[in-house]
Amino acid sequence: MALLPILEFPDSRLRTIAKDVIEVNDDIRAIVKDMFETMYDAPGIGLAATQVNIHQRIITIDISDEKDEPLVLINPTFEILDVETDKMQEGCLSVPGFYEDVTRPKHIKVTHLNLEGNTCQFEAQDLLAVCIQHEIDHLEGKLFVDYLSKLKRSRIKSKLEKAHKLQAS
Ligand code: GNR
Ligand code: NI
């Protein structure tokens, strides 16, 4: 049982590209358990292993109101099913306190391994599709602030750096 510290922008470790999980074993299942605890505690609707400084392709998600629909995606990939996009206000546990609109494909097909190591596929739309794309971006070293203007991103960076300096002193 462990809450894992969450890296915050502009920490360069958030730019690490995660590696595929080779085998879904008890070590991976222990990481998933800690990630769920960390995500529910934060609280967030999703968490990518990258955010807790574990550079393997593992995502936890729960977009339900009751927080009783945990979803684990190991080695996730997605295909865009529809040209339609959706603009949604996004936030990120690694960019605390900032919320900005991001446009992404609205309808995707996700392929992943489950906790038993079996390949699974499903379609996702709306908030779930947004969340999955946001988390897969993390595994690729990408953050939602990368979709914003340079000016907005640099303002967010300065404010967070200032906050981190205050926290350290
Ligand atoms: O908790 C989160 N909320 C959220 C809202 C809109 C779009 C994406 C997200 S994911 C975020 C948690 C997080 O940072 N996951 O990486
Ligand atoms: Ni995030």
Brief account:
The chain is an alpha+beta fold and 169 residues long.
Q: How is this structure best described in words?
A:
- By secondary structure, the protein is an alpha+beta fold.
- 29% of the residues lie in helices and 25% in strands.
- It has a five-stranded antiparallel beta sheet. It has a two-stranded antiparallel sheet with strand order 4-5.
- Strand 6 and strand 7 form a beta hairpin.
- The longest helix has 19 residues, at 150-168.
- It is globular and about 45 Å long.
- The structure holds ligand GNR and nickel (II) ion (NI).
Bound molecules: ligand GNR, nickel (II) ion
How much helix is in the residues? 25-40%
Number of helices: 3
CA distance, first residue to last residue: 29 Å
Structural shape: globular
**Radius of gyration, whole Å:** 16 Å
> What fraction of residues sit in β-strands?
25-35%
State mean pLDDT (0 to 100 scale). Answer: 98
Number of strands: 7
